[in-house]
């Protein structure tokens, strides 16, 4: 009896330590449900998000894993909080009204195109930051489509291994264990593991500040007026 009890405790601990994986089908169902709530067609969502109809359709059917840029763009268009998008199955995120603890192994894992994301603090809706533990699967840059761009800022801290962070302007920054990097998310960027084992990082993205949003919208209005006057 003692041995059986011990075995049960070990199995329970193993289950507890296994991250919650958000499979493509579940993620796709959430996208489709959110789109249908607005009564939008695939073409309408594509126009609003900038993501192709084919990509959205395949993602909704669970046939395609999305990279950060695409799921962030879709989430923004659908007015879908990142935490609602990646919350554990059956979990309803609520407003942040106290400390949110994510125990080891209890993050929600989503395997993207070149990156495996373990989303942390997903029970808190409306956060200004989106923290993840990421495993960098990419080994090379295949083309312009590998570069992600998003509103806000990004921070990366290397837990293990080494990575190259490629920027669309040709700059490459190498980071080893303990190194960190902070940059503007609108600059195209991509992570590549260069160590023998896949690198693991802590990554944080922020939402665009009200100040930056106002500045960007103000610039767009000035440009439009300038264009209207034939400037």
Give the tags.
2 domains; 12 strands; 25% strand; alpha+beta; 3-stranded antiparallel β-sheet; 231 residues; 7-stranded mixed β-sheet; Jelly Rolls; 434 Repressor (Amino-terminal Domain); disordered N terminus
Question: In a nutshell, what does this entry contain?
Answer:
By secondary structure, the chain is α+β, with helices and mostly antiparallel strands. It has helices at 2-17, 24-38, 42-49, 53-60, 68-77, 82-86, 210-228; strands spanning 20-21, 94-95, 108-111, 115-119, 124-125, 129-136, 153-160, 163-167, 172-175, 180-184, 189-193, 200-206. It has 2 domains: 1-96, 434 Repressor (Amino-terminal Domain) (Orthogonal Bundle), CATH 1.10.260.40; 128-231, Jelly Rolls, CATH 2.60.120.
